[in-house]
Amino acid sequence: MNFTLDEELEAVRGLAAEIFADHATVERVRAVEGSPSRVDEELWTELAKAGLLGIVLPEDAGGAGLGLGALCVLLEEQGRFVAPVPVWPATVAALAVAACGTPEQRRDVLPGAADGSSRLTVALEEFGSHDPGAPECVAEPDGEGWRLTGTKAVVPTPSGADHVLVAARAASGTGLFLVASDAEGVVWQHAETTTHDLGGTLVLTGAPARAVGTPGDGTLDRTIAHASVALAALQLGVAQGAVRHAATYLGERVQFGRPLATFQAVQHQLADCYIEIDAMRVCLWQAVSAIEEGEGAAAAVLVAKWWAGEAGLNVVHRALHVHGGIGVDIDYPVHRHFLWGKQLAATLGGAGSDLARLGAVLAGGPVAS
To answer: Fewest CB atoms within 10 A around its CB: which of 41, 89, 167, 170?
Structure first.
């Protein structure tokens, strides 16, 4: 199968790479990590001006209509620079509203999501070993709307988000529900994450919500698939950025009169990184193709997510290792890639969880939680 990017996606890659290179410098990332919100609002604005925040949204919603592949290209470039902007949660949430939301929801949410003037985030995870596709958060009908009760963990970047797309279960099945971030019955408990993002624990007590799609119609499963692919693309970029740092360091660092890059043991470490990155890339684009074609998507997505978690973690570990002692300096650039790789590998379940769910899909049985 040919996974070569077409001209449109190559143009997206080039534009995204230019913006991230200009605005996500090491000094800038360090400064944002010390800011109250931990979000680079200046970079967010530049991405919006370039039309990249709405790249996956349909044209009638103010987007470019380039599909999931364009989002993956954008996220891969973001990962290379570990740029502190909440592209994946905001875009995945907006994509769900675009695909399954009511005309009113689309009108309220999508224009701001496309031009960057407002943000969404997703609340898909809970404490414990729950499969994100089987939430414990409860949705109960309330007239034409719903009321949500439960706790959602590790909500990414709630700062600046106007709405949260919450996974919950109703009597008719699981679904997604749009909740205003400051609504009655909504309480936030902020927590710093491994990547220095200020995530949040979301406590809902009869919070008013609007259903996106109909509970039980598969909207949640599709959104988890999109989120998994988005995370895999981001991890692919993180891994490539880590290896770039390693190659630069090893080419400049001299030991015993020779650059470290000339030592065979080091070359073997980077060769393993290259192989795993290539496998991550192939599995990512296989998953994107499967989603777009609607064939075998569940298994392909889980394979891509497993490779992103397992191989991505291996790569950032090796990149850190070949730096020697300086690699553990928490302010050294490669350490940020290591932290991002660690957190992304565990988001929406780690490698063991992915394998259990993949086994259930291949066996045709219920997904293990």
So the answer is: 41
Q: Phi and psi for 177 in degrees, rounded to 5?
A: -135, 135
Count of beta carbons in the 10 Å neighbourhood of residue 6: 10
Contacts of 143 (CB under 8 A, 6+ apart): none
Q: Answer whether 315's CB lies under 8 Å from 274's CB.
A: no
Domains in the chain (CATH in brackets) are 7-117 (1.10.540.10), 121-212 (2.40.110.10), 219-363 (1.20.140.10)
Residues in the chain: 369
Answer for the pair 205, 185: CB distance below 8 angstroms, yes or no: yes
Q: Name the residue among 149, 155, 148 with its Cα closest to residue 190.
A: 155
Q: Give tens-digit pLDDT for 211-265.
A: 999 999 999 999 999 999 999 999 999 999 999 999 998 888 777 778 877 788 8
Alpha-carbon gap, residue 33 to 253, rounded angstroms: 28
**CA dist., res. 82 & res. 369, Å (int):** 31
At 61 the pLDDT is: 86
The model's pLDDT over 301-329, given as tens digits with 9 standing for 90+, comes to 999 999 999 999 999 999 999 988 888 88
- How many C-beta atoms lie closer than 10 Å to residue 268's C-beta? 11
Q: Which residues in 130-164 are b (16+ Cβ under 10 Å) and which e?
A: bbbbebbbebeeeeeebbbbbbbbbbbbbbebbbb
Q: Phi and psi (nearest 5°) for 141?
A: -60, 145
* Rg of the chain, C-alpha, whole Å: 20
